[in-house]
Amino acid sequence: MKHLLILLLIALFTLELDAQSSHLMKIKGSIHDEEMNASLANASIICLYAKDSSRIKLGFTDQNGHFFFDSLPRQNLILYITYMGYQPLIHNVKTQANVEAIDVGIIPMKRTGISLAEVEILQETPIVKIIKDTIEFNANHFKTKNNASVEDLFKKIPGIQIDQDGTIRVNGEVVKSIMINGKAFFGNNDPKTLSRNLQADLIDKIQVFNKISENGLDKGETNKYINITIKKNKQDLFSGELSTAFGTLNRFSAKANLSRFRENQQILLIGDGNNTNGIPDINYVGGGGIVRAWNVGANFMEDLNRKTTLNASYSMDDKFKIDEQKSLKQNFISDSILFNDEDSRTNNRDINHGFSLQLEYKPDSLQKFTFSTNNSLSHSSNTFNNNYASNKNSKSINNGIVINNGENNTGALSGGINYEKNFKKKGRSIILNLNYGNGKSKESKFNISRNTYFLETGESRADTLNQHFKIDANSQKTLFYINYTEPVQKNGSLTFFLGTDQTNDSYNKSAFSYNTTNTLYDKYIDSMSNIFRNVSAQYCGRISWYVQKNKLNYMISLSSLSYNFNNKDIHLTNISLHSTILLPLFNLNYSISNNKQIRVQYSKETQFPDITQLQPIPDISDPLNLKLGNPKLKPASSHRFGLSYNTFDAISLRTLYLSIQGNINSDQIINDTKTDSFGRQIIQPFNHSGGYSISFDLNRGLPIKKKANTITIITRSILQSSINYVNGNRNINNKLLASQTISYNSDQMKLFSYALSANINYNYVHYSNVRSSNTNYLNYTISYSGNVNLPLGITISTLLNYSYTSGLTAAYNNNIWILNTSISKTLFQHKQGMITFQGFDLLKQNKSITRNIEVNYIEDIRTNTLAPFFSLKFSYFMGKGKK
């Protein structure tokens, strides 16, 4: 009976599909120039209902002028055809009985002299255009609330997600940079700064695309970028925001930004400060710790003349954070577990200044010189107080107190010149690049600890440390490369690359113990002091073959990377490492159609150890975890592969993204951890092969009800295997993460908008050495956020968030409700003013609990959070009078 029912359901489903397909048809044809009879590639074709001219689908002709539509309703239709330089054309298509595919043949287009009958075309401006691997969105279609930011606009765009910290993702992939009118801002690396400081009503188009970046001797990796274009009627207008808020518990926030964009000039000034963990509005749940931050930034770009462009930026951030934490750490020692309880407080302040200048000179249309410099100054200070206790098999092993504090001052200067030349032969080019960098740092830190260790005999041993460390570090780097590209045949090109990277690092560490006689730190500790030098040279040669066809492009590359390492210190003889690594790369992109693409990727990557991993001098700032470097470390390698499929329907705005990514490690830098009888761990890195990871991602966007509502489905799973050694025994740690998110967004901007989402995460962890520590844990979150728009410009907003976690240590499981709410009112004629009353964490339940899983331990941490507070905010938005 059961099998019969299943067969019946399958039959009914098949009949339904057949019934649906019987009401559908296909249309194909081609577009030509009427006079020359030449095919017109990339002509835009909008398919419309004949009865009311509403849109059904949007398409483009291929390189041969052909077009094809499938799954069209079996009704009389209109094809509205446009092409730059030609008169628009309307072509009627009448249904034919028992004909499922209609060939309209060649449709000629005239350059001039055609007169069209009037016809009303709904939404003539396309919502989305797909041009090769670029997706362009018409920002006017995506409605936002009054005075919304670009970040608010991004949340409406199919495929774009915004994390709680402001990180921007496209189908799960982090966006590396946002450009404005094709030009980069803020050193090309801070998308959040732009998205939160520009107004949404400035934006005309949003373009999402991939870009291959070259960075020194790296082979070039494909990253995700967003370019936003400014509306023409806003390009000579100053726009910005001034806002301030004051609240209970002395909470405050202030924000100011001003921007203007012209054809030959771009200006952006920003400034903000707060002690509310940077929460922009009630739709965000603050993380752990208490943060006070000030930020200032300025960016200026101008075409000084037809040949010269200047781009300058300055940024400053001052951040002070207080973390109060309680943690329980399970350290796996061969076949047993060492438990470590900690209660700590950390005060950390970081002040950073950055200035960059770029001058671009084009003597003619084929050549370009780029001069650039980047400068930075940083100061950091911190204090750390920690009370700890460890036990094994319910017996005390150690306890104590640790007090660390220190300061660090760092300065860096770099500059370079880049020359690019395109030859008259199309596709032939050459790039010459020379860069130099110099960085210095001075660090002073104090390490005070009082430790008690309990012996097996029942006796105890006390150990007190009071030390001062002075560290001077210097790094010099010189990079030069030449890149030459030669076109081969019709669609191919060969690229030859030669480069060298010379680095000279020095690290001088002096250790002193406290002298109780004169109360000075003047007792030199030879075993903890070091003068370390690392001189490295890398030489890279690479040849790449690139093919670009109508639907297919691919690149095959092979690099030969030779390196020489020379490490020298005052304790050991010189250690030299020499080797040559072959680094292959393969990228393939295939367009099944205008809106369906497949990408295949493979590359071998390498990572060099940093100077702290190479030094054989112990770091005892944490008395329970003593770190020791290894001057014999080799570079780590990994094999990366990926397969992805992406489809985007420009009419329905439905999206689908599937991805499988993998990584296999070779000579991975892992840790060898040894635990002594006092419960102290001595950790030293070394090379080992065998770890791997595999991930699967699915992102699905399903707009419904005339695109006012959207269902988003995000599925992610990760399988990871890592290796380390504990007391000489090999330990394999396997982790599985499975995550599912479903969200529903309803956008009726005149009345209300809301979002419902549910997320569940399942984690499974397996240890080969200590199987009793194998664990699994679960957490899920349900969230509602919504706005209700009332008369007189009043809006009520609410966030209700529920989270539940099980499977952690008993005291760290959580069951939390978060309620934030606000009421706002627009002011003045053009609604350029707004006053908002906000309440955060009204139920007083906010907690920050995290779990860290590493190859030899599991750690649960609870961190302090902001207490509930209310605030009153006033905002004034400039540039709202011009529509």
From TrEMBL:
Keywords of the record: Receptor
Span of domain Outer membrane protein beta-barrel: 421-876
Lineage: superkingdom: Bacteria
InterPro entries linked to this entry: CarboxyPept-like_regulatory (IPR008969), OMP_b-brl_3 (IPR041700)
Family matches, as SUPFAM superfamilies: Carboxypeptidase regulatory domain-like (SSF49464), Porins (SSF56935)
Pfam families in alphabetical order: OMP_b-brl_3 (PF14905)
Protein's recorded name: Outer membrane receptor proteins, mostly Fe transport
Species this protein is from: Chitinophaga arvensicola
Lineage: Bacteria, Pseudomonadati, Bacteroidota, Chitinophagia, Chitinophagales
